[in-house]
Amino acid sequence: MRILVVEDERDMNRLIVKTLTKAGYSVDGCFDGEEALTFLSGAEYDAVLLDVMMPKLDGYELLKRLRAGNADIPVLFLTARDAVADRVKGLDLGADDYLVKPFDFDELLARIRAMTRKRAGSRSNLFAVADLTVDTERRTVFRGTKEILLIPKEFAILEYMIRNQGIILSREKLENRIWNYEYSGSSNNIDVYISRLRKKIDSGHAVKLLHTIRGVGWVLRADNTGEII
User: Fold this and answer.
1) Phi-psi region at 174: left, alpha or beta (left = phi > 0; alpha = psi -120 to 50)
2) Do 60 and 193 form a contact (C-beta atoms < 8 A)?
3) What secondary structure letter does DSSP report for 18?
4) Which of 36, 224, 127 is nearest to 28 (CA)?
5) What does pLDDT average to over the chain?
6) For tag attachment on the chain, is the N or C end more exposed, with fewer CB atoms within 10 Å?
7) Could you read off the pLDDT of 85-128 as tens digits, one per residue?
8) Collapsing DSSP states into helix, strand and coil, what is residue 180?
9) How far apart are alpha carbons 216 and 172 in whole angstroms?
10) Cα(55)–Cα(86) distance, rounded to whole angstroms?
């Protein structure tokens, strides 16, 4: 999952980015509302963490513009303004949640999970395809009763695919959601990760789950109809 952190206090911005990256998210950070609009116009994000008081364009105005453009991306306000009126204003403008500084990072991570679950229409952190189960909170993967150990990027790819199971995902869409703006790796990097992931989740199983649709992309599904492996 890819998250945008919009926070003008640079040390706080870096700390949030570092914490979310360690938790397995792909994260971009920027420092004012206008810069955030540039990021949001150039990439797809699964959530935005948004400060209220920022230079150039504050968080309220940025959220207004997002919702006016029919963007339904989940937004969590992070701010020192703890008055009820401020929280009400943010929620009425279309924010999904509101967390007052200083906050506990475990609570921040829990609120991100809850916010993104709601968008996906799920009440649980557990996703499944056939006998493959992925727990996005504990970051565990099982095929049947056997645990599968994944490195962070493999887990990130599998999480995105299982959240979009049955949907063919292009190379561009996968790269856009898994890597941040600082990524400068090889264009075939996604192929390498997909290959490793397929071996880990499908090797030794009669029912294959990770399929390549030649010239289009990849899909996670138990139905073998129409795929080219």
Assistant:
1) alpha
2) no
3) H
4) 36
5) 88
6) C
7) 888 888 888 899 999 999 999 999 999 998 888 776 666 788 99
8) coil
9) 10
10) 18
C-alpha 177, offset from chain centre: 7
CB 69 within 8 A of CB 41: no
Distance CA 65, CA 48 (A): 14
What does DSSP say about strands 75-79 and 97-100: parallel, antiparallel, or unpaired?
Answer: parallel
What SS3 state is found at 75? strand
Q: Contact at 8 Å (CB) between 213 and 228?
A: yes
Helices (H), ranges, 8-122 = 10-22, 33-42, 59-68, 84-92, 105-120
- Beta-ladder partners of 28: 4
Both tokens of residue 106?
């475990």
Q: Any bridge partners for residue 211, and if so which? A: 219
Distance CA 95, CA 111 (A): 13
User: Of 146, 132, 180, whose CA–CA distance to 24 is shortest?
Assistant: 180
* Cα–Cα separations (whole angstroms), residue 15 to 12, 27, 105: 5, 12, 10
The whole-model pTM stands at: 0.75
Question: Which residues, 6+ apart, have CB-to-CB distance to 16 below 8 Å?
Answer: 5, 7, 27, 29, 49, 78, 108
- Furthest-apart CA atoms within the chain: distance in Å: 58
Query: Which tokens sit at 110?
Result: 């829990």
For the chain, report the end-to-end CA distance as a whole number of angstroms. Answer: 25
Burial of 35 (0-12, 13-18, 19+ CB in 10 A): middle
Q: Which residues pair with 212 in a beta bridge?
A: 218
